[in-house]
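In the current project phase, our protein records have gained a structure token line. A sample record follows, to show the layout:
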Amino acid sequence: MFQLIFAIVFLFIAWAAWRRNPLYSRRSTLRTIFVVLLAIAGAIALIIAAVNLTAGRSAAVTFSAMGVVIVVDTLALIFVIQTFTVPRESKPTSLPHATKLVTTNRKKVYKWVKVFAIIILVFAIPGLLIPWDIRYAFLSIAGITAFLAVILLPVLYWTNRGFDQSLTAVELDPWVHWQYTPEQWTAWSNVQAERLRVTPPSFVLSRDWHRLVWPVGAIIVGVYVFCPGSWTWKTLYIVGVCGAIVALVVLSGRGGAHGADKLRAKLLRADPQAYFGRDGIFCDGVFTPWVNVSTFLVSAAIDERQPRSAMFNFERSVPNPYGPTQVIPIHQAVLIPSGRESDLARLQQELAARCPNVRISLA
């Protein structure tokens, strides 16, 4: 019963988040629902076929077959949804097959490959060497991590390959391309770091604790009323989950002082240039799409603080299993090079056509 209520609530939350997205339309939503239902039916058919084919076989064969089917079904569902339900407006620009793509975004996936590999080895090696029963705990963690890696890494690679395709298209055919001297870039990096340093905390536990009452209370009631298990187990689960949520909220709202030096170092490592094109903006070493299923532009204007810059404000929707979908604001400031103010008119025109419902005030 609890799982059904949770699923219904999650669907309404996901619907509300999708309704905010500028890509939303009734036609695309109906098409998405149809494709998802068809993909789920195919996944169920594959599971039924696997059960029938492994009937009467050994437990090892049955579990292995079901594991493979679950992985295939999960990846197939994700790729089908990404391929057939994403609106055309947010898909990467098509490029000739011979075009060599940049690897800026896929490099992030390579780092995750190393992280997963280290975790698997750290737990698998003791699990194989320890003779006592505790080794099964190590092997279970290694196995779960391997399963997550098999699911997550291909999806991350596919998604970031799309970003690399978009970034390649932007660099090959930009609306506007700004480059900076090392001196300009160092000065601009220092300015952004100092602006972040004076940003006040967005959440102070002694001041904003009441904002956590509703989500924490919902978790407590939901677990105690609907979840099976002993009171001790439920209490430990609630303490762990609520403690993690409170810690995450407090850490994420500490203000900018603790991250200013990291931001400065990150900017100094980035290429001193900015690209604007049909698919998005590339600046500070980060590519951000103008419009995407989860990220989209909400406004663009001139920041008159010296040195003058163009400020692009985005919103990113992040699913939250314990409450409404979290909307994270992203502010991308781009230094306007001296003598390139005339480019703002072109940027205003192109961006207004690309995102007609967004407030654009650049020219």
User: Anything to note?
Assistant: Strands lie at 176-179, 273-276, 280-283, 286-289, 295-303, 309-318, 326-335, 359-361. The chain has a mean pLDDT of 84.
